Amino acid sequence: MSTVAVVGTGVIGASWAGLFLAHGHDVVATDPAPGAEERLRDALEDTDRLRFVADAGEAAAAADFVQENGPEREDVKHALFAVLDEAARPDVILASSSSGLLPSVIARGCPRHPERVVIGHPFNPPHLIPLVEVVPGRETAPEVVDRAVAFYTSLGKRPIRLSREVPGHVANRLQAALWQEAYSLVERGIATVADIDTAIAYGPGLRWAVLGPFLNQHLSGGAGGLAHVLAHLGPPTEEWWRDLGRVHLTPELAETLVAGVDAELGGIGDDQLVAARDAVLNRLLAAKAAQPDLP
């Protein structure tokens, strides 16, 4: 059993804490927000092995692994990681849940040991979604990445290891590409917010939840597989790429998107939606785990 420091206990941090506790680790948590400890304990079922401290340095000093979940601001990250770098043992990995900042930028706050800084970006909610993107910075030691991947794997996660850093990592960049066209289709009046959600959730999204985009393309090619798809559908796909919309998130467009979501929900509360989503996710993950032929 080891001790994991959870620095920042908002939605992501609380979910991480629950996962660490569920896998037998002790958790020492910290968050400067008023009422943070009460909210965290309310969110977790088992808090016997949870300790909450006021200072991030105290949490890091007690930890064998640090998972940071602070605001997505360089100045905040630098100040926070300076504290973590000073307090944590030299062998302790400092992993950030940052969804887009480069680890080399975050590591500027660690003058003592920048080689132990790595991105460990989860997908919300981390206690359910298996993906973790492990991203090294320019000074990150390879063995730190190895250890981070091994640790996340021991939690039942499915980590991917990026060979180099890029803004937004991998999954968020893929999402951003989809959002760009989705927003553009709404802006141009081609489809509503609800139509686009239906198109994904009841179309390719169902297949994407089982297999990724490349394997789905491979299966759609029949006996010829991906090679057949690329040979026969590659040219029209390139034409579609050239026709994809460029969009600016203006206040007017933001208002349209928000109104579209409100209309689509039709009074369904966020708590209801989260509970329904998580119930389906649990069943889906169990079904996938029972299929040994799925990669």
Automatic annotation (TrEMBL):
Please give the superkingdom of this protein's source: Bacteria
Keyword Transcription regulation applies: no
- Keyword annotations: Oxidoreductase
UniProt domain 3-hydroxyacyl-CoA dehydrogenase C-terminal: residue ranges: 168-236
The UniProt record lists the 3-hydroxyacyl-CoA dehydrogenase NAD binding domain at: 3-164
Under Gene Ontology molecular function, one entry of this record is:
NAD+ binding
**Is Translocase among this UniProt entry's keywords?**
no
Q: What is its EC number?
A: 1.1.1.35
* Top EC class of this enzyme: oxidoreductase
Q: Name one GO biological process term.
A: fatty acid metabolic process
| InterPro entries reported for this sequence | 3-OHacyl-CoA_DH_NAD-bd, 3HC_DH_C, 6-PGluconate_DH-like_C_sf, 6PGD_dom2, NAD(P)-bd_dom_sf
Pathway as given in its UniProt record: Lipid metabolism; butanoate metabolism
What does the sequence similarity comment in the record state about its family? Belongs to the 3-hydroxyacyl-CoA dehydrogenase family.
The name this protein carries in UniProt is 3-hydroxyacyl-CoA dehydrogenase (EC)
| Source organism (scientific name) | Amycolatopsis camponoti
